[in-house]
């Protein structure tokens, strides 16, 4: 398997429209759930399998669904869902 070096840009490329990542994405880049403060600094510059990196980026926004977004109040969830639909993310 081919490896590449994980960069800050890779991490941002996988972030959702809300600046978050799913548990699955974090596992792909070797971050325990829930991520602790400083997790980005700990993994930037480390080798990662190119297939895992591709999956990480492909999963961007996949955790945002109409039933998802736990922890948000109903009104805020509805607003986020409308934004995601307009951007054709869901």
General description of the model:
The chain is mainly alpha-helical. The chain is elongated and about 40 Å long. The protein has one domain. The longest helix is centred in the C-terminal third of the chain and has 13 residues, at 74-86. 43% of the residues lie in helices and 7% in strands. The chain is built from five helices and two strands. The chain has a two-stranded antiparallel sheet with strand order 1-2.
Distance between the termini: 32 Å
Number of helices: 5
Radius of gyration: 14 Å
Order of helices and strands: EHHHEHH
Shape: elongated
Strand order of the largest sheet: 1-2
Number of domains: 1
Class computed from helices, strands and strand pairing? mainly alpha
Offer a few descriptive terms.
90 residues, mainly alpha, elongated, two-stranded antiparallel ribbon
SSE topology sketch:
Layout: E1 3-5, H1 8-13, H2 23-28, H3 39-43, E2 47-49, H4 50-58, H5 74-86
Antiparallel strand pairs: 1-2
Short précis:
The protein has 90 residues and is mainly alpha-helical.
């Amino acid at each position: 398997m081919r490896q590449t070096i994980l960069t800050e840009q890779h991490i941002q490329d996988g972030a959702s429209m809300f600046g978050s990542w799913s548990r699955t994405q974090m596992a792909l880049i070797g971050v325990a759930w829930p991520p602790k403060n400083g997790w980005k600094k700990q993994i930037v510059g480390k080798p990662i399998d190119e297939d895992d990196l591709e999956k990480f980026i492909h999963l961007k926004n996949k955790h945002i669904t109409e039933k998802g977004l736990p922890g948000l109040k109903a009104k805020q969830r509805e607003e986020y869902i409308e934004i995601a639909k307009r951007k054709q993310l869901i």
